[in-house]
C-alpha cells in the first residue's frame, strides 16, 4: 500500500510543481488550444475537461473544448473547425479510433500540433504524440483481480463468468480485452471458469458506445437465458465503471444482491464517483484507478513542448509507444492501480484525488472511513 500511495503522491507532486514554473513563463499567452472530447455524459470526460483546462490555463493558454457525443462525423467536423480557426494546438480523444486519419492530415498540412489523448487515432502516419494509460495493464489488473478474488490459483472453482468488453470503435478496448483475457483464458481452458453464454470473444462481448444501458440489456438477456434455472453467476469482467453499473442493475433486477444470492464480482476502470460509492456499499467489487490528473498534466506539458518546438519533458520511464498501423507513436503511459473496498480511502482520498465534496459526503462522514492508524 505504501508503494501505491508513493506512486500517486509522486505523480501529484509533479503536477503541483507545474504552477511555479508556468507562473514565471506564461508560455501559452495569446495562444489557443482546441480540445476535442467524446461525451459530457461520461464521468471521466468531465474530469478530463477540468484538469486539461486547469493545467493549460495555468500556462497561459486559452482553451476551447468541444464534445462529439460519440459521433465520429461530428468530431471530424469539430476538429477541422479548430484547424480552420488556426488554433495553436489540438488535444483530441477520438470517438472512433479509425475515423480521423483525414482530419489529422489536414492539421499536419497546416502545421498544427496534435496530442492524441486516451484512445489512439489509427492508420495515420501524422500522429506523433499520445498520452494514455498502460492499456494492457488496465485489462491485466481487471483479470488478475477476478483470478485472485475467486482463489483460482489456489485451485478453487469452477465458477461462472460473463464478459462485458468495451466499444468496438475504441482501440483501447482491444488492449483492455487482451490484458484481461491473458489472465482469464487459462482458467476458461481448464474449465475452472465457465462462460455459460459461450460469448467469449471480443466481438460477441462488445458494448456499443460503452453504454451502461447496452451492458444492462445484454446482461438481462444472458441472465434470463442461461441463469434462470438458479445457476449462480459468480463474476463478471466488466471493463469500465459504466459497464459494471449496467450489469449490477441487471443482476439486481434478476434477484441478486441478497445474502443467499450475492452479486457477482465485478471489475471496472475510471473511479467514477458512483463506482466508488458502489464499492463502499459492497455492490461493485473493484475498479482501476487511472490518474486523470497525471494524464491531463502529461498531455498539457506535452502539447506545450511541441508548440514551442522543445524536447518532450516526459519522464522517460513513463514513455513507451503504441503502433497505430502506420507508425509507432511516442506515448506517455500512466500506471493503473487496482482499487477495492480495502484500499479506496488511501488511494483516492489520502492522495487528494477526491475530497468529501466530490464524494457527496460531509468531512465527518468521510473521516469515518479512514483506516485506523
Ligand atoms: C477509456 C476509458 C473509458 C472508456 C469509455 C476508454 O477509451 O480509456 O477510461 O471508460 O473509453 O469512455
TrEMBL record:
<keyword id="KW-0732">Signal</keyword>
<feature type="domain" description="Periplasmic binding protein">
    <location>
        <begin position="53"/>
        <end position="299"/>
    </location>
</feature>
<protein>
    <submittedName>
        <fullName>Sugar-binding protein</fullName>
    </submittedName>
</protein>
<dbReference type="GO" id="GO:0030246">
    <property type="term" value="F:carbohydrate binding"/>
</dbReference>
<dbReference type="InterPro" id="IPR025997">
    <property type="entry name" value="SBP_2_dom"/>
</dbReference>
<feature type="signal peptide">
    <location>
        <begin position="1"/>
        <end position="23"/>
    </location>
</feature>
<dbReference type="InterPro" id="IPR028082">
    <property type="entry name" value="Peripla_BP_I"/>
</dbReference>
<dbReference type="InterPro" id="IPR050555">
    <property type="entry name" value="Bact_Solute-Bind_Prot2"/>
</dbReference>
<dbReference type="GO" id="GO:0030288">
    <property type="term" value="C:outer membrane-bounded periplasmic space"/>
</dbReference>
<dbReference type="Pfam" id="PF13407">
    <property type="entry name" value="Peripla_BP_4"/>
</dbReference>
Amino acid at each position: 500500500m505504501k508503494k501505491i500511495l508513493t506512486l500517486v503522491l509522486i505523480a501529484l507532486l509533479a503536477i503541483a510543481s507545474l504552477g511555479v514554473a508556468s507562473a514565471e513563463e506564461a508560455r501559452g499567452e495569446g495562444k489557443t488550444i482546441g480540445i476535442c472530447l467524446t461525451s459530457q455524459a461520461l464521468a471521466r470526460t468531465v474530469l478530463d475537461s477540468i484538469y486539461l483546462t486547469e493545467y493549460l490555463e495555468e500556462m497561459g493558454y486559452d482553451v476551447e473544448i468541444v464534445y462529439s457525443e460519440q459521433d465520429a462525423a461530428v468530431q471530424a467536423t469539430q476538429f477541422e473547425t479548430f484547424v480552420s480557426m488556426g488554433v495553436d494546438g489540438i488535444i483530441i480523444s477520438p470517438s472512433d479510433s479509425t475515423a480521423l486519419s483525414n482530419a489529422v492530415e489536414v492539421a499536419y498540412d497546416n502545421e498544427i500540433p496534435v496530442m492524441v489523448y486516451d484512445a489512439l487515432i489509427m492508420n495515420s502516419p501524422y500522429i506523433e504524440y499520445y498520452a494514455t494509460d498502460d492499456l494492457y495493464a488496465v485489462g491485466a489488473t481487471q483479470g488478475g483481480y477476478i483470478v485472485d478474488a475467486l482463489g483460482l490459483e489456489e485451485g478453487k472453482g469452477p465458477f461462472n463468468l460473463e464478459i462485458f468488453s468495451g466499444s468496438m470503435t475504441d482501440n483501447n478496448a482491444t488492449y483492455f480485452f487482451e490484458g484481461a483475457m491473458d489472465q482469464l483464458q487459462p482458467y476458461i481452458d481448464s474449465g475452472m471458469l465457465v462462460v455459460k453464454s459461450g460469448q467469449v470473444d471480443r466481438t460477441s462481448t462488445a458494448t456499443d458506445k460503452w453504454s451502461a444501458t447496452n451492458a444492462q440489456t445484454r446482461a438481462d438477456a444472458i441472465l434470463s437465458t442461461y441463469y434462470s434455472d438458479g445457476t449462480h453467476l459468480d463474476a463478471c469482467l466488466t471493463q469500465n465503471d459504466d459497464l459494471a453499473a449496467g450489469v449490477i442493475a441487471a443482476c439486481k433486477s434478476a434477484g441478486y444482491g441478497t445474502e443467499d444470492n450475492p452479486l457477482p464480482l465485478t471489475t471496472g476502470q475510471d473511479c467514477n464517483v458512483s463506482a466508488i460509492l458502489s464499492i463502499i456499499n459492497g455492490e461493485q467489487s473493484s475498479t482501476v484507478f487511472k490518474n486523470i490528473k497525471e494524464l491531463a498534466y502529461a498531455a498539457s506539458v506535452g502539447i506545450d513542448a511541441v508548440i514551442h518546438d522543445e524536447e518532450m519533458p516526459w519522464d522517460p520511464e513513463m514513455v513507451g509507444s503504441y503502433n497505430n498501423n502506420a507508425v509507432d507513436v511516442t506515448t506517455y503511459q500512466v500506471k493503473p492501480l487496482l482499487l477495492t473496498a480495502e484500499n479506496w480511502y488511501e488511494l483516492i482520498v489520502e492522495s487528494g484525488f477526491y475530497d468529501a465534496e466530490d464524494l457527496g459526503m460531509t468531512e465527518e462522514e468521510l473521516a469515518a472511513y479512514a483506516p485506523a492508524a
